[in-house]
Amino acid sequence: MDIIDNEDIDIKHSDKEFSKKCCHCDKAFSNRKQLEEHLKIHTEDRAYQCNQCDKAFTWKRNLESHVRTHTGDRPYKCSMCDQDFTEAYGLSQHKRIHTGEKPYQCNQCDKAFAQNGNLKSHMRTHTGEKPYTCSECDKAFSDSNSLVRHGRIHTGERPFKCSQCDKAFRTSSALQRHMIVHTGERLYQCSQCDKKFLLNSHLKTHMRVHNGERPYKCSMCNKVFSDESGIINHKRIHIGEKPYQCKQCDKAFTESGNFIRHMQTTHTEEMPYKCSQCDKAFFQSSHLKRHMTIHKGEKLYQCKQCDKMFLLNSYLKKHMSVHTREMIINTGEKLYQCSQCNKRFSLNSQLKTHMRVHRERQYTCSHCDKGFLFKSYLNKHLRIHFKEKHFKCSQCEKDFLHSSDLLSHMLTCEV
């Protein structure tokens, strides 16, 4: 730590004439008091001690804000949504959500931010700088908050506790998402379709459905995504990463959602969400909601290219591949590249099929040593050895080894 010498501080005879830069960081001040307050940062003079924990602060106002984390006191309340804050600065930043004010503009792209800290973090997406490194696993981050959140994975710390139940969370946003279970409140509403969201970040991501914005581009195949999680999950296709491992059957998944669905459908029989109009039950409330559209006949999902309407978003996504295929065929582009042999393909489905060439055929037939990528393929092959014919024609009672053979037969069966 540098020792500050009084001679380093050139103080003029009058505060009116005073103008001096800090000798440690070149920050400039117009009066003596401002400089003296600022110098406390460099001397690490922390005279204000919290009497409930070991934390100490340079300024009294910082201690007062900190004490509110112990008392739960949040005296600054938003007049537009009743959200409250421990300090005035937090409230002033929050109000920009309602006013839409974004005073901090990126000079490299058109993005603007409500907070200066968010602009600084964003600038690192242009520079690629990741100055914050985890001491446990060497993972690097572009901002300190991400490092702090990541560190809780190693420590197991869950500082955000629910006041309604015993659950605790690693991040405040996770706690906010959880609180909807108790309150059901969704404060952030879309101005174009009336959908409501728990978090403003969720609303921002949703708005890209309406404006078509897809700011996240894959550097390996140029595919674009509307949210960061989409590109993170997509990149795992190229590198073959499957971080979500099932401990009960050794299956692995690229996305947490697929892993959760696997656990619910394969390793549990609990189906808490029951349809009031038929006997079907579901693992997730969202699945029940999708199912209810069948009873109501509502087609909420519309294709922007041909105006066709669909019952489910999954049907719309499947339909959109028709337009994507047409566009790719017309342009002749081959956007999808194999990470193993650099072969390129027009469609992602073609790349996925090709990737099987590189995978180990772990399922081997005990009768002829033929290898298969999937257990289902081996089971299908075994019917040849056992002459099992599971597929029977309902018209003439002929048996077939494979369903495809039965379907071909059904087209010509005249009995």
TrEMBL record:
It is found in: Nucleus. Pfam families: zf-C2H2, zf-H2C2_2. Its main location: nucleus. It comes from the Eukaryota. One of its GO terms (molecular function) is zinc ion binding. One of its GO terms (cellular component) is nucleus. Keywords: DNA-binding, Metal-binding, Nucleus, Repeat, Transcription, Transcription regulation, Zinc, Zinc-finger. Residues 20-47, 48-75, 76-103, 104-131, 132-159, 160-187, 188-215, 216-243, 244-272, 273-300, 301-328, 336-363, 363-390, 391-415 form the C2H2-type domain. SUPFAM superfamilies: beta-beta-alpha zinc fingers. InterPro entries: Krueppel_C2H2_ZnFinger (IPR050826), Znf_C2H2_sf (IPR036236), Znf_C2H2_type (IPR013087). PROSITE patterns: ZINC_FINGER_C2H2_1 (PS00028), ZINC_FINGER_C2H2_2 (PS50157). PANTHER family: IP01015P-RELATED. Belongs to the krueppel C2H2-type zinc-finger protein family. May be involved in transcriptional regulation. This is C2H2-type domain-containing protein. The lineage of its organism: Eukaryota, Metazoa, Ecdysozoa, Arthropoda, Crustacea.
